[in-house]
Amino acid sequence: MALTKDRNTVRRDGVQYSDPVAAATRIFAGSLLCLNAAGNAVPGSLSATLKARGVAQEHVDNRDGAAGDLRIESRRGVFPFANSTSTDEITRADIGASAYIVDDQTVAKTSATSTRSIAGVIRDVDSDGVWVEI
After folding, report:
1. Could you give the CA distance from residue 106 to residue 88 in angstroms, rounded to a whole number?
2. Given 3-state DSSP classes, what are the helix, strand and coil percentages for the chain, each rounded to the nearest 5?
3. DSSP code at position 95
4. What are 66-118's pLDDT values in tens digits?
5. pLDDT tens digits for 31-74?
6. Closest C-alpha to 29, from 130, 105, 133
7. Helices (H), 1-131
8. Residue 65: exposed, middle, or buried by beta-carbon count in 10 A (0-12, 13-18, 19+)?
9. CA 11-21-68 angle, 5° bins
10. For a disulfide at 131, which of 2, 23, 59, 124, Cβ 3.0-4.6 Å?
């Protein structure tokens, strides 16, 4: 039904998130944070089913807890991550392509035959690492 009077519509900036942490999980501040299939926060790892969420803004240790016992703050944006090596090393020629998650601080050029999830879009490569937009 269409509005017939003013509506107080709340707003989010779409940059900061708070998510439940998966059971038996420890996440370090500054790590690449993902959501697993259940929608719980986990550190980036070798998996084809993760969804990149942002960078963890705090350290949360839920190793002794159940899923959702603790929450973690994360932030979207463009962040530098460690570069993979050998044939999976990202170069400036890859700017604009997808980066793939190796672990909670490393990204690679390929999905390794569909075994890695997408971290985001490569925006730059410099001495600080691979700048990925999540």
Report:
1. 11
2. 5, 45, 55
3. T
4. 999 999 999 999 999 999 999 999 999 999 999 999 999 999 999 999 999 99
5. 999 999 999 999 999 999 999 999 999 999 999 999 999 999 99
6. 105
7. none
8. middle
9. 85
10. 124
